[in-house]
TrEMBL record:
TM spans (from-to): 12-33, 53-72, 84-105, 160-183, 195-215, 221-239
Lineage of source species: Bacteria, Pseudomonadati, Bacteroidota, Flavobacteriia, Flavobacteriales
Name under which the protein is recorded: Rhomboid family intramembrane serine protease
A single Gene Ontology CC term: membrane
Pfam family, one: Rhomboid
Keyword Hydrolase: yes
GO MF term set: serine-type endopeptidase activity
Amino acid sequence: MGRITETVKVLLIANILFFIGSLFLGGYAYKLLALWFPENDNFGIWQVVTHMFMHGGFGHIIFNMFALYMFGSLLEQSIGQNRFLFLYFSAGLGAAGLQVLFSYVNFQSAYQAYIDAGFSPQEMQNMLSELSSNGRYNFYNVIPRETTEQLISTYKDPMVGASGAIFGVLAAFTIIYPNLPLYIMFIPIPIKAKYLIGGYFAINVYSALTGVTLLGPSNTAYWAHIGGAIIGFITMWYWKKNQFNQNRWN
């Protein structure tokens, strides 16, 4: 590893400070700064940015910050501070946007199932208000259990983490250094970046489409990972194709 760049250092410190603060503030920090489903009373527009600095546990923040440390500095050295910041935050915003979009699809599907079963909009509003205020909900025989779980999890589980922005960094890194050999634990041979990072992306696509978790916790926001990677890939591809001397990327 080369030296850590200034922007990456600031992002690392900011994420760590947010995480330490959340340990002291507990649920209040997540209520205020995590990204809630827009229909939830806890939602605030600022959360589309602040959620990138919140994490769900030690394992979550360690993995994200390790990836930022490993790939972020070399990427920033290649494209510059301003472009790195633009890519990082645009990937994070793209990740949030795609995750919210698919959350809306899941929520509306489950919501409509309740309406079709005879629940009125007012009854649904009362149920969601109770869920928001005290976390209570019921299962009904006329509604499949998985439908209720889909409605509840979409509505009450907030999105946290820098993973979407990190996936943008990884995708951009792959555009610049596709053949750079990388090593991972327990595998003693180098793997080219395009295969290692591409394979990790493919696993996330598979999990997003099937609901089967292969890596990480079951509540991972896979669509956020995909959204961040897409924004990072497109942004870096455009810059490389249109704004930079090709020799710089060799």
